[in-house]
Amino acid sequence: MNQQPLHTGRVLIVEGKYDAARLARLTDAMILLTDGFGIYSDKKRQRLFKELAKKNGLILLTDSDAAGFRIRNYITNLVGAEHVVQAYVPAIHGKERRKAAPGKEGLLGVEGVEDALILRCLREALGAEADAAPQRPTGRPITYTDLFEWGLSGSAGAAQRKARLLNALGLPPRLSKKELVEALNRLYTFEQLDQLQAKLEEEK
C-alpha cells in the first residue's frame, strides 16, 4: 500500500485540532478546521471556505459518526457540491488514546484511524487527482518574513495590525500564522496585500 505523503492542491477540511495534527504528517495539503459545529456560526470561516472551494476545491474528511455527517453535509451545501470531494473513514469501533471514554456512538474519529487507512480513503476519494502537482500561486509568494515586515508578527502592536488586516479581508480572526500565510497565498497576490497593508497603516 502506498504510504507516501499525499500531495493535493485541494484544501483539506477536518473537524478538530487533533485531526489536523494527524493529517499534517500524511499530506502537504492546506488543512483547515471546522471547530466541530463552530462552523455553523462562524461567518468569516464560512466565507473563507467558499472562496477556497471555488479557487482550489475542498476535500472533506470528517468523523464517521452522525455529527461528522451533519458537518459534512452543511459544508457541502454551503460551498456547493461541485467544489467538494468527499473522503470517508470507515466506522470502526474504539476510542482514541487521549480520551477516557469512547464517543457517543463508540466510533473512532479521524485522529484514531490508522495512517494507511486514512491515506487510502483520501486517494480513493481523489482518484486520478491524487498526487497531482498542486497549482502554485503565480508571482512572488507571501512568506513569514512578509508578515514580520508588515508588522503582523513579532513586533509591538502586531496582534492589532493582524486583526485589522483580517477584518479588512473578511478572514477569520483565529487563523494560525501557518493558516494565514497559506490562505493569503491562495487568495491574493503579494502586491495586493502590500498595497492594502500600506493603506491600512495610512488610515490609522
List the helices and strands and how they pair.
Elements: E1 11-14, H1 17-24, E2 31-33, H2 43-55, E3 58-60, H3 66-79, E4 84-86, H4 115-126, H5 144-149, H6 158-169, H7 177-187, H8 190-203
Parallel strand pairs: 1-2, 1-3, 3-4
Mean pLDDT value? 86
CATH classification class of the largest domain = Alpha Beta
Distance between the termini: 56 Å
Number of helices: 8
Number of DSSP E strands? 4
Q: What is the total domain count?
A: 2
How would the global form be characterised? globular
* Spans of at least 5 consecutive residues with low confidence: none
Order of helices and strands: EHEHEHEHHHHH
Features:
single chain; alpha/beta; 44% helix
Structure description:
- Helix 1 (17-24) links the parallel strand 1 and strand 2.
- It contains eight helices and four strands.
- It folds into two domains: 11-129, Rossmann fold, CATH 3.40.50.140; 144-203, no CATH class.
- It is an alpha/beta fold and 204 residues long.
- The chain is 44% helix and 6% strand.
- The model has no long low-confidence stretch (mean pLDDT 86).
